């Protein structure tokens, strides 16, 4: 009969596993990197609004739409793309490390 480890034993085993620390480090660095990229895009757009109003207000091909509109849409789309990048890596590399850690805990 296989004995199931207690939660305390499993927690200690996971905490002492070098793969767990690798997972935490990789995920933290990756999340902060993507956050910094998004903040740079967002604050860059805000600075452009503050100091480049004439540029953003220029009409695209003589129509009603200004240059600011596609740039603003680009800011929104960049958030979606960065989220997709995080999800792809989380579902691949991070989930695999997580699976290995759980297997080793049992």
SSE order, as H and E? HHHH
Strand segment count: 0
Secondary structural class: mainly alpha
Radius of gyration, whole Å: 23 Å
Helix content: over 70%
Strand content range: under 5%
Query: Which word captures the global form?
Result: rod-shaped
Poorly predicted regions: none
Note the main sheet.
none
Span between N and C termini? 14 Å
Please give the count of helices. Answer: 4
Averaged pLDDT: 90
Q: Any key phrases for this structure?
A:
mainly alpha, 0% strand
Describe this structure in words.
The protein is built from four helices and no strands. With 106 residues, the protein is mainly α. The protein has helices spanning 7-15, 18-51, 53-56, 68-105. 0% of the residues are buried. Helix 1 (7-15) packs across helix 4 (68-105) and helix 2 runs antiparallel to helix 4. It starts with 6 loop residues before the first helix and ends with a helix. The chain has a domain at 38-106.
């Amino acid at each position: 009969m296989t004995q199931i480890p207690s939660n305390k034993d499993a927690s200690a085993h996971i905490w002492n596993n070098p793969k767990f620390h690798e997972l935490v480090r990789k995920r933290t660095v990756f999340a902060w990197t993507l956050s910094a990229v998004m903040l740079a895009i967002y604050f860059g757009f805000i600075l452009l609004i503050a100091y480049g109003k004439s540029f953003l207000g220029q009409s695209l091909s003589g129509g009603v739409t200004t240059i600011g509109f596609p740039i603003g849409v680009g800011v929104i789309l960049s958030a979606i793309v960065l989220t997709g990048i995080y999800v792809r890596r989380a579902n691949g590399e991070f989930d695999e490390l997580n699976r290995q850690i759980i297997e080793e805990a049992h």
